[in-house]
Structure formats: structure tokens, C-alpha cells
Design a protein that fits this description.
The chain has eleven helices and twelve strands. With 350 residues, the chain is of the alpha/beta class. Helix 2 crosses helix 5.
Length: 350
């Protein structure tokens, strides 16, 4: 069954709620960059916003605008993916608990400290009483949320789904990851080259999916395959079956979008796999402009959808090319987490 992306909105380290990154990306040279916030006064009641953490504001705004732009009044379901959830509220609550000897604690940070707070608040904000679920599988949290939506849409249980990926990165958590070598801590001021080094960032991206094709539909999601600890032969077979299911071959794939991040161990897996599965195919990347987070793959799907909508992959996204690729119709998105969980998502032009 065909599933279509009707709208997509993001708040990230690029110009928020905008596709300006497509032609004029903001290049960051810091090892840690927080999201660029829009003017929330345009979207949220100030009194309401006071009680929200940054990640909740971002999620509410992207969800509202994605819903509005899709032409769908109310989604049948809200499905979210997050690796860390509201980690900033969690930190504040725990620090206050220690400082105050577990007394005089503010309940707001405790209530907003769980992973499913984000999806729940979106549901409350929209007054949506349908299916609401949150997935927290680290680097493939977003793909699990997307797969849930595709399965339910394909089975006819729902007709529309608001699917999002949301993560924030606090200074303390970023420092912890730097100490274990997740990011280089000494890259400040050094220009970032494509595929060499990336940076810690934040994600808020919302999609409205439905089973109905419209003139305004952005692109089609054909399938999401998630494999746990596959061998290279199992990955090759899964890719072959995925393409065969949609009457395609690897020759029909115009480009492959990879989650190369600048982390040596991470990128070695992508490079080795690409040589075997995608020989001679144009390879594209996105984390050099959007950064790394547990749900960065949500931004990756957004980038792929935008490229299909505009039928062009700009050269600043290409890993192995210096010219734009035009007339793109099919892009394969490949994401993996710590070499354990691998996800293949096939998207095509409507």
C-alpha cells in the first residue's frame, strides 16, 4: 500500500521551519550547536510556553505547522521517536533533588522528564484522542516510529499519522559523550569538510503521513526495513527483496543517503557497507549540516523528501560528487546504530 508524506517541518541547527538549507546551508564550526529557535510568540501562548522545556516547544510548533500544511484537520494517530526524551528537564529535576535533599521539589520538571511526555503533550495540544505511542530505540528510534505508522496505515487501522523525531542535547550530556570519544572536543574553529567531522546537535521534525495521494503530496514512502545484527549477506538480501517488492533494481536508485557523522567507528560501517551494497551509486550525507543526535535520521528522511520534492540533490549534500544531481525519482535512506541495528527506507517521487 502506498504511504505519502503530506508535509514536513523542522526546528534544527538550520533556519527553522524553512528549506533555506537546501541552497544556502548554515555551516557550523563548533563541536556542539543547539537548535536555532523560532519566535515562539508567533505560535504559542506565553503563559503556556513558560511551563514548557525547549524540546516541548519545538515539538508542539513543528507538529502544529505540519498538521496545518497537510490539510488534515486531525491525525488519527501520533507516533514519536526519541533517544533521550526530555533530558534537560530530567537533569534539572535530579540536580534539584540532590541540592534540596529530596525536599521542596517542583513537580513540573518531574512531569516533563519522561520520554513519552513529548507525544502526550502533542496529543493534549491537538485534543487528539487517537493512538499515541513513543519509541526509544536510540539511533533508530525514528525508524521504529515510522515503521509503526506504515504498518497501521497499510492495514487500514488509521488513515493519517503524525510522526516525529525529537531530541535535545544538553551541555552536560554532550560533555559526557565527548569524554568517551563520541565527538572530538578540539575541533572548534576548524572548517568542516563533507563527511569528515560533524557535531552534536538537536532535532525536532514532524511529518504528516496518509494513505491518500494528493497534488500537494511531497513523496511516497515505499517501505522501512529494520534488521538487528545482520551479516552483509543478509543486508544484501534485504535490499534486493525491498527493491524487488516495488519492481525496482539498484540501477533505479538515483542516490543513497547515509548517516555518516564523522565518528570513525560509525563511518567505517557505512563506508564498508556502501562499497558492497551500493557500488558506483551517488552517495549523499546530511549530518555535516544538521549534526548528530539520536533522531537525526528523522532529519535525514526530511532531507530526502525535500530532494525528491525539488527533484534535485544539491552538491553540498554529495559525498562523492561535485555537481548537483537532477531529476531524482528514487532515493534509498540507510541508517545504522552502533553497527547493531540497520534500517533501509525507500522513498520515491509521487
Amino acid at each position: 500500500m502506498a504511504i505519502y508524506i503530506q508535509s514536513a517541518e523542522h526546528i534544527s541547527v538550520q533556519q527553522p521551519l524553512s528549506d533555506a538549507w537546501f541552497d544556502s546551508p548554515i555551516m557550523h564550526e563548533k563541536v556542539y550547536v543547539r537548535a536555532i529557535e523560532p519566535n515562539y510568540k508567533e505560535f504559542l501562548d506565553p503563559i503556556q510556553a513558560r511551563r514548557m522545556g525547549k524540546i516541548l516547544k519545538r515539538a508542539i510548533v513543528t507538529a502544529r505547522i505540519a498538521t496545518k500544511n497537510s490539510g488534515i484537520t486531525m491525525p488519527d494517530s501520533i507516533i514519536s521517536g526519541t533517544g533521550l526524551g526530555c533530558v534537560e528537564s530530567t537533569e534539572i529535576f535530579l540536580e534539584t533533588m540532590v541540592k534540596n535533599g529530596e525536599e521542596l521539589l517542583q513537580p513540573t520538571h518531574f512531569m516533563q522528564s519522561t520520554h513519552n511526555t513529548i507525544g502526550s503533550l502533542i496529543g493534549i495540544d491537538m485534543k487528539c484522542h487517537g493512538y499515541n505511542s513513543t519509541y526509544t530505540q536510540k539511533g533508530v528510534s525514528f525508524e521504529n516510529a515510522l515503521l509503526d505508522a506504515l504498518l497501521q496505515l497499510s492495514e487500514g487501522k488509521i488513515k493519517s499519522a503524525l510522526v516525529g523525531g525529537y531530541d535535545e542535547m544538553t551541555p552536560k550530556y554532550q560533555l559526557m559523550l565527548s569524554r568517551v570519544g563520541y565527538w572530538r572536543a578540539d575541533r572548534d574553529g576548524v572548517s568542516l569538510k563533507r563527511g569528515e567531522e560533524t557535531f552534536a546537535s538537536e532535532t525536532s521534525v514532524s511529518f504528516m503521513l496518509s494513505s491518500e495521494k494528493k497534488e500537494t503530496s511531497i513523496c511516497r514512502i515505499n517501505n522501512v526495513d529494520i534488521l538487528y545484527k545482520p551479516s552483509i549477506d543478509e543486508l544484501k538480501f534485504a535490499l534486493s527483496e525491498l527493491l524487488k517488492k516495488h519492481n525496482l533494481s539498484i540501477d533505479d536508485v538515483d542516490a543513497v543517503m547515509l548517516g555518516i557523522s564523522g565518528n570513525k567507528a560509525n563511518d567505517e560501517i557505512y563506508n564498508n557497507t556502501a562499497k558492497i551494497l551500493f557500488p558506483k551509486k551517488p552517495l549523499a550525507i546530511y549530518k555535516h549540516i544538521f549534526g548528530e543526535s539520536y533522531t537525526a535520521s528523522g532529519l535525514g528522511i526530511y532531507v530526502v523528501a525535500t530532494c525528491l520534492k525539488k527533484q534535485r540533490i544539491p552538491k553540498h549534500l554529495l559525498l562523492n560528487g561535485n555537481e548537483d544531481i537532477n531529476q531524482v525519482k528514487t532515493i534509498l535512506f540507510y541508517n545504522q546504530d552502533e553497527g547493531k541495528t540497520h534500517a533501509l527506507t525507500l522513498l520515491t517521487l509521487c
